[in-house]
Amino acid sequence: MKSMVKMIKNLSSMFNPKAVCVIGASRKPGKIGHEILKNLINYGFGGKIYPINPEAREILGLKAYPTVKSTPTKPDLAVVALPAVYVSEAIEECGRKGVKAVAVISSGFKEVGNARAEGQIVNLSKKYRMRLLGPNIFGVFYAPSKLNATFGPPNVLPGRIAFITQSGALGIALMGWTISEEVGLSAIVSLGNKSDVDDADLLEFFSQDPNTEVIVIYMEGINDGKEFMKAAKKTVMTKPIIVIKAGRSERGARAILSHTGALAGSDAVYDAAFKQCGVIRTSTTTEAFDLARLFAGQPLPDGDNTVIITNGGGMGIMAVDACKDSGVTLMDIPKDLAAKFRKNSGMPTFGSTVNPIDMTGQIYEAGYSGAIKTALSDPRVNSLIILYCQTAVTDPKMIARAIIKTLKENGAKKPVVTSLVGGEECRVGIRELNRAGIPSYSEPQRAVFVIGAMHEYARYLRKRKK
Ligand code: COA
Fold first, then answer.
1. Which of 155, 202, 248, 405 is the most buried (most CB within 10 A)?
2. How far is CA 83 from CA 86, 90, 169, in A?
3. Residue 334: its pLDDT value, please?
């Protein structure tokens, strides 16, 4: 059943439609069909928007149409927000009109045991050669076409990270989280029951999408493991894939079955498959987006040597411990480089040049700047972790600005991550660094984790390219 649908690979109508209709666009604020229409309008979608509602003449200032058949032009994408029993009729109508992709928001299909109804809408979409996203989803967002066809937050930040999620509520929650954390997204796709469009299809699309640099997937289960692996193996050669795979525990796996009707399968099998394909697996959503931010902003390292620069011994030691857990290779600093670190940072005699480079708590912006330049200019250093503990003699914001300026002026061609630990002022510094594309975290372990994962990915690529 799937193979023929698979032949219709073109998903671009779903992401770049010229016209969109919302079937079940309610007149009542707070109802799902109404909120989707509102998001579409408010996010600035440039194409035509057709609310479909037989009871309405106008909704949110737009002329409403009683049927898809009656719209003046053919919608490329139809968002269906009707109770499950009416969905197949709506899809048939879309097919007759020549719609190319349908996103079915409605719940009440395979996830509640209604496989027959789901089979019916899959067959219909196949009959009319339409792509079917869902059912049981919160919608689709694509920043380049200003398409927010979701009932999630209205003000998603545009960026370079594509986020694919099998869970609806978690997806919506993470949309909100990315806004408050200022993480920019190129796309958000709610996959729901994956009756047609699945992870493999989207990997294929995003691997060729110039607006996307890294792909994050929240996954509960895969229907077609072989297809996924094939697509993932190809995609990772140009874009990293980060997967948050839920259902590690037996109980978690059982919960998945009743959530999206997916079979979770053995966790060990997923682990092995991800490793083989070069897919990075994370345990938490924070780890996933921490990492995505790094990949979206920084180059890959050429080799394995990492240097830590810090103004706090304790923070440096915590980071060193984390390096062991995250597979980060701490460079043994050669004598000549140690001397340069000492001289260029202006650290006191009681500072240390044994990695971590501990410049001590009495170091200022100029010290950071000197140490960073030293690390950047030495080809034996492949990545850099900059740590800062708030002290009474420095202003975190000024340290952040010095880091940004130094990296900008010295055209960093190696990955750099930072961690600022302290009070509210550090949060300001972290924000400024992130805005400048230099990943910054509130704990050193988070910085170490992302660098470790990036090095592992770079090693995987080097091996595959041999
Ligand atoms: N074509 C177009 N519009 C139609 C219609 C048709 N054939 N038949 C009815 N409508 C109109 C209704 O009149 C209504 O508009 P109104 O409020 O202005 O009267 C609107 O479409 C919606 O229909 P309604 O019956 O009120 O549905 P609903 O809004 O209560 O529920 C869903 C629809 C899709 C939201 C609901 O069935 C559902 O599945 N909810 C769960 C969604 C979900 O959680 N998805 C997963 C997220 S992760």
1. 202
2. 6, 11, 19
3. 98
Amino acid letter for position 404: I
Q: Is residue 54 within 6 Å of ligand 1 at its C-beta?
A: yes
- Statement to judge: residues 258 and 352 lie in one domain: no
DSSP-assigned letter for residue 243 = E
Q: Which one, of 46, 39, 237, lies nearest residue 153 by Cα? A: 39
Residue 2 has a pLDDT of 46
**pLDDT the model gives residue 186:** 98
43 CA to centre of ligand 1 in angstroms: 22
User: Around Cβ 77, how many Cβ atoms within 10 Å?
Assistant: 27
CB 447 within 8 A of CB 306: no
User: Looking at ligand 1, which atom is closest to the CA of residue 105?
Assistant: 45
Q: Which atom of ligand 1 is nearest to the CA of 107?
A: 39
Locate 297 and state its tokens: 């902003």
Final residue belonging to a domain, choices 294, 317, 345: 294
Assess whether 338 and 281 both reside in one domain: no
Residues in the chain predicted with pLDDT less than 50, given as ranges, are 1-8
Give the C-alpha separation, 418 to 294, whole Å.
Answer: 10
Q: 445 C-alpha to center of ligand 1: Å?
A: 46
Structure tokens at 37: 């229409």
Distance 89 CA to ligand 1 centre (A): 14
Same domain, 156 and 279: yes
Same domain, 286 and 333: no
Mutate which of 53, 58, 190 for ligand 1? The one with the most ligand atoms within 8 Å of its CB, which is: 53
Question: What pLDDT is recorded for position 6?
Answer: 43
* Same-domain pairing of 244 and 276: yes
Please tell me if the CB atom of residue 139 comes closer than 6 angstroms to any atom of ligand 1. Answer: no
Please give the pLDDT value at position 223.
83
Report d(CA 110, CA 135) in Å as an integer: 9
Range of the domain at 228: 4-294
Last residue of a domain, one of 250, 278, 294: 294
Number of domains, the chain = 2
Tokens for 3, please give them: 């193979």
- Round to whole Å and give the CA distance between 307 and 319: 11
Residues 123 and 222 grouped into a single domain: yes
Q: What is the pLDDT of residue 4?
A: 44
User: Is the same domain home to 220 and 309?
Assistant: no
Query: How far is it, in rounded angstroms, from Cα 243 to Cα 284?
Result: 10
CATH code of 231's domain: 3.40.50.261
All residues at 6 or more sequence positions from 351 whose CB lies less than 8 Å from its CB, including other chains: 342, 345, 357, 358, 359, 360, 363
Using CA positions, which residue lies closest to atom 17 of ligand 1? 26
